[in-house]
Amino acid sequence: MDSPKINKHPFIYEINTRVWIKRFFPDQISYNLLDIPDNYWHSLVSKGFHYVWLMGVWETCSSLVPSCCFEDFLKWEYSKALKDWKTEDVIGSPYSINRYNLNPLLGNDSTLIALKNKLNKLGLKLILDFIPNHFGADSDYIKSNSEIFLEVSESKFLADNHTYFLHQSGRTFAHGRDPFFPAWQDTIQINYFSEHARIFMSDLLLELSKVCDGVRCDMAMLALTNVFQNTWGGIISETNLARPEQEFWKFAIDKIKNERGDFLMIAEAYWDLEWQLQQLGFDFTYDKQLTDRLKTNANHVKEHLRAEKVYQDKSLRFIENHDEERAAKLFGKEKSKAAAIIISTIPGMHLFYDGQFEGKQIKLPVQLGREPIEKKCVELTRFYDSLFQITKDEIFNSGNWQILETFSSWFNNETNKNILAWLWTNKNDKYLITVNFSEHLSTCRVKLELNTLDEVVELNDLLNNQIYLRSSEEIQSEGLYIELKPYQNHIFKF
User: Fold this and answer.
1) What are phi and psi for residue 116, nearest 5 degrees?
2) Most buried among 21, 53, 70, 144, using CB within 10 Å?
């Protein structure tokens, strides 16, 4: 089956659904996603968003909340984010799910498909969570499909009752885990060396394709064969589990793309495994490396952006999401604007998180169902509104992107290293983006091929609403002179 065309460099908006929906219906205790006003979705379309990711919509294991969600470190996080939190505000992790049914507090069985159809008509596509590594430790599937989970001996449990647990059925299983951290107490590990599990999880993906347009796969690298083997090597040896011949993701993605070629697969990925996951069929993989480099300096960012074009095109760029600190808090207002311009005007997918445009500064633990009231930063809201009116231009989707060298503007002046520059071209249009990603006044020269006989070039600075007239000969010989204050920018159309 041929794959329908996917937006090459799409924009996606993430929403912490269980918290966000209460803003619209503050006096209710249950809701329906279909009741969200149309003008809300229209506002996302008007900004140029192609996808909306409703994070945390699945039915969770509420029985686990009392025993798993009040550990000291979690209570510390709750108090840091929501000073007046109460026991009833703790609703459990959205990544400890019972099964892939809509949380009954958000609607009924028909809600998701109806919402998908509604969003599609408005010009948005719906992304939902897929959690490949685990289910909730009290999932109904433990009774109905126990063969998909990583079962262990009683001796393992007795030796380590943090990584392993005794289920009420009397059987012992492994909790889900990341090999670099302690096991997640509210989860049960799926066994990716089991053919039953691989078929079961790939079939679930097929079912999800009926109610959404793509999935964001939580900690996708944990299902890779080598990662699974390194994480659970002792259990694998003890139980003589056979190593699969094919990677799960290759098997599952081929299966779903054969049924629905436009179904979008997004991988949360770390540990330099992004390229491998791209090769296995993921449309986009998290670019956490860029997020981390944006915490350093322009040189580190520039080095990262010199990676192969095919890798860049499949990277998902972000400066905040539900796992990260808020950008306005981490970077401060001006640097967060510079970082937003960078991630919005390079190739790949561009993710923005609910509250980012308003300058929210508090990172809310995902276990909380209530958020604090924060003052809106009007300046940031206006900035994002202006930025998205620019990035909606088709050149940022179908144009050609090229990173540019920034040359010293005069002898012994090395502030050119602080400035990032790239060019988008499409037919007769050109967009030059320059960002001073430093706290110092910086200058540079940027050489451009103009292909014009005009002596003077008009540069329209779209974000700053200014027009500059510059010599064509100077631009092509010495280079366009750029001078920028700390964290300031130009987005030139010419």
Assistant:
1) -55, -50
2) 53
Q: Which residues contact 99 (CB under 8 A, 6 or more apart)?
A: 58, 59, 135, 139, 140, 141
How many angstroms separate the CA atoms of 61 and 138, rounded? 6
**Which residues on adjacent β-strands are paired with residue 456?**
471
> pLDDT-derived band of residue 4, with 50, 70 and 90 as boundaries?
very low
Site of tokens 């071209």: 425
Q: Please count the other Cβ atoms lying within 10 Å of the Cβ belonging to residue 471.
A: 13
CA–CA gap between residue 343 and residue 349 (Å, rounded):
9
Alpha helices in 298-398 (DSSP H): 298-304, 309-313, 327-331, 333-344, 378-391, 395-398
Could you tell me whether strands 419-426 and 400-403 are parallel, antiparallel, or unpaired per DSSP bridges? antiparallel
Give the Cα separation of 59 and 40 in Å (integer): 24
Q: Is the pTM of this model over 0.85?
A: yes
Runs of H (alpha helix) within 240-283: 248-259, 274-279
Is 403:306 a contact under the CB 8 Å cutoff?
yes
Buried b (16+ CB within 10 A) or exposed e, 243-276: ebeebbbebbbeebbeebebbbbbbbbbeebbbb
pLDDT digits (tens, 9 = 90+) for 131-179: 999 999 999 999 999 999 999 999 999 999 999 999 999 999 999 999 9
Q: What is the rounded CA–CA span in Å between residue 494 and residue 434?
A: 14
Quote the distance between the C-alpha of residue 128 and its chain's center: 12
Region 237-248: what's the mean pLDDT?
93
Using CA atoms, how far apart are residues 94 and 92, in angstroms rounded to an integer?
6
* Local confidence band at 267 (pLDDT 50, 70, 90 cut-offs): very high
The two three-digit tokens of residue 160, written as one number: 């380590």
Q: Which residues pair with 173 in a beta bridge?
A: 151, 165
**Euclidean distance between CA atoms 170 and 442, whole angstroms:** 67
Handedness of CA 356, 359, 365, 368 (dihedral sign): negative
Which distant-in-sequence residues (6+ apart) come within 8 Å of 284 by Cβ? 264, 265, 266, 267, 314, 315, 316, 348, 349
**CA 251/CA 256 separation, integer angstroms:** 9
Contact 123, 164 (CB under 8 A): no
Tell me how far the alpha carbon of residue 348 is from its chain's centroid.
Answer: 12
How far is 458 from 159, CA to CA, in rounded Å?
Answer: 73
Where helices occur in 145-224 by DSSP H, the ranges are 154-159, 195-208
Alpha-carbon separation of residue 271 from 221, 226, 288, 296, 351 (angstroms): 9, 13, 10, 19, 20
Residue 286 CB neighbours (<10 A):
27
Question: One-letter amino acid identity for 205?
Answer: L
Which one-letter DSSP state was computed for residue 62? Answer: G
**How many residues make up the chain in this entry?**
494
